[in-house]
Design a protein that fits this description.
The protein is α/β, with parallel strands linked by helices. It contains 12 helices and 14 strands. The chain is elongated. The two termini are about 60 Å apart. Keywords: DNA-binding, Transcription, Transcription regulation.
Length: about 325
Amino acid sequence: MLRTRLSFADASATEMQTRFYVAIPACSVQSACYHFSMRTLPSLNALRAFEVCGRLLSVQLAANELNVTPAAVSRQIKLLEDQLGVLLFERGHRAIALTPMGERYLADIVRGFETLRTATINLTEARRRRTLKIRGYTTFSMNWLLPRLSTFHREHPDIEVSLTTSLQPVDFNTEDVDAAIRLSHAPSSDVGFDRLVPNELVPVCSPEFLRAHPDLTDAAPEALRNVPLLHSLARREDWAKWLDAAGVRGVNPLSGLSYESSILAYFAATQGVGVAMAQRVLVADQLRDGTLVMPFSFVLDQGAYTYYLIYPREHLSNAEFAAFRNWLLSIGEAPAA
């Protein structure tokens, strides 16, 4: 709030001794100053004509660039000089040159146009770029999705993907999530869903570990009782499932070492700690490059219990989400780029 003192020229001397204070909102003063300053600014057409003419030092070339007549350029510059009360160009018979004040003004105008250009680009880029918020699991994200996501970014540089991880179910009604990758049987019918990859359980270990334990073969899977079994705390039942389906007896499915997540158990296996029960799709790259090997040929396919992309059905009409979904479905079990 501004307090302004008012006096009246036609008041008597006695009356002049009385001072009046009127409260004026600061925003009103700022608004008035803003509108006043805007009224005193030259037009953008005049400034643009000056910038081009000053850069090219030719009215004809400036007219060509602006796609107007030379007379129109000269008129805009004359209006600008009249408004500023400053001579910006020295005009010769066949050439023009900037005056010292014109040179200084041109440098400032160029910076101003660059600021406008940058602001406009930033605004349009912000509107053009769309961030998709995807929820996944830590191991699936790190071992499968992230190594392949660079191909999506190359194909769709205007779409950003924000990836978060959680073991908890997603609630699209209360959470700011566009889609989630979940391990389950076929999801409920109130969401859209697509099956992504098979969920196959296989024991894995490092090549060095297998060489140190040559008895780990299809002929003697019971030899697993003599080596550390590696578990993920979130998937403690996997060893029991595989051993039962493979018909292996005499091996305690809960023995061995446990880790907070599957990715830690897989890493321990690469370091020769023991044999991990893995989801084959999540160690496919390591199996391909030889970091991990499968000592047994039996694979437990868990059928419909696998990874799905789930999403609100209305997201299918969103171009950015549709692009991400189509890309995700197209890569299937393709190796990382």
